[in-house]
């Protein structure tokens, strides 16, 4: 089941916001609590045992999704009939004191639920022009099974600082059979970003404290979070979308979208997509289902025939891609868990999911096949598209660049980072780890367009190109 929120600045508790309310919400995030509670309520009402909770968001919506994950971790998930306790649960979540963690622990002990997947696009560090934070917003400390983050290399506005996945600095022995964490210590400020190339890093394991009366002991095994954060070419809206119309075939935002959709399959989310919609977004559907095939980095440039069509503008609308697909019967089982009896009668055949897809190759379908452009060729052409830098497009953003904000500054001599208050003045983002992930299309843009990565890095940085 799917739930969608239009985002901060678009509605208040009574519905659509008027202009003043929307502006106030954008400034201070006044509607953030409504967004979190509404999404939490939906999960309360629809969750069934065995479901996989998957959260997605862009920009401040990503922040909201991470706060929601934090609330589910801190207070658990109330039963559907327990609506009266929702307000109390949210207040316990917001309470970052020892007493707040104690009361949350009572909820969590009864209503413990895990989040399976968090997928965010350029998550920002705070909500609104006036910074506002909530507990567990910087780190989804509920230990989701998978955390995926697409980040913008070229965003440089002061109020759009990227919020990386962060970790606590205290680690217990991974051989221990139980996970012990101190509720009072769990809300300590994180030390820094994790090294994301390993699924075993960035784990929120805490040292047990026998002297703390609020230490909880969970009998289930520790689940390490599989973390992957990848940098993409472009600014904020080039990663999350919105800068270019949906009818434009090639745009930078298509690349992280396809990457995130593939991560949904790689991470076994069980999300059911419409095959033709995936084809319209440029994905090679026949590599997704019934058997998932991971793509490798292309070793050659696109075939000349595709390049000529691209240069002449003859590729047509991307929605025509779906006409090159033909459904065929499949006997393979569905990757999704069996539906609950309350949702669908048992024994009912779910025929729409029982198929595979292939490309037509016979001569009679040549016209349809002409519309098909392989996924990585689509990525290649998307990587060549212009960026949408709001500091250049809308100079009024520069007003905020003159206001003092907390920034990361690099000490070149010590190859270290410090935090200070200063004017941002269009400064590019810091990348503090030594081996960050770079999407392969960024390298193609560098080779074809002379693009330069201008984020601030350590001297010994070594980019790891990923697909």
TrEMBL record:
Residues 330-342 have a biased composition (Pro residues). Residues 321-352 are annotated as: Disordered. Residues 1-263 form the T6SS Phospholipase effector Tle1-like catalytic domain. Pfam families: T6SS_Tle1-like_cat. It comes from the Eukaryota. This is T6SS Phospholipase effector Tle1-like catalytic domain-containing protein. The lineage of its organism: Eukaryota, Fungi, Dikarya, Ascomycota, Pezizomycotina.
